[in-house]
Amino acid sequence: GDVIHRMLTATQYIAPLMANFNPSYSRNSTVRYLDNGTAFVVQWDQVYLQGKEDLGSFTFQAALHSSGRIVFGYKEIPVPVLQISASQHPVKAGLSDAFMVLNPSPDVPGESRR
């Protein structure tokens, strides 16, 4: 859509695993992408959780196919996802296509509400 707002990444995402990852922690950590014309693939390779580096590295990917199919792949998930703390960053996996609509406010003429 045309609306850009501060909650965009909280409301619109494709996330094989969203957490407080720190790709700069290790020289071996990378976030790579590839578009071969029929699929766009993003891979998080050997990334660590900020402040929890001792748990080990995570490797996973998301593939968006031109047919509309979305595939999440997981190679290394060293701890159960439910054990990842959400205190510093939301922990989510999946899709969200929420959007914001501005409607005229019935209470205040000339104002909008979200």
From TrEMBL:
Gene Ontology CC entries for this record: membrane
Membrane topology field: Single-pass type I membrane protein
Main location: membrane
InterPro entries cross-referenced by the UniProt entry: PLXDC
Keyword presence, Signal: yes
Cellular compartment(s): Membrane
Keyword entries, A-Z: Membrane, Signal, Transmembrane, Transmembrane helix
UniProt record similarity statement: Belongs to the plexin family.
Cited PANTHER family: PLEXIN DOMAIN-CONTAINING PROTEIN 1, TUMOR ENDOTHELIAL MARKER 7 RELATED
Protein name per Swiss-Prot or TrEMBL: PLDX1 protein
Taxonomy of the source species: Eukaryota, Metazoa, Chordata, Craniata, Vertebrata
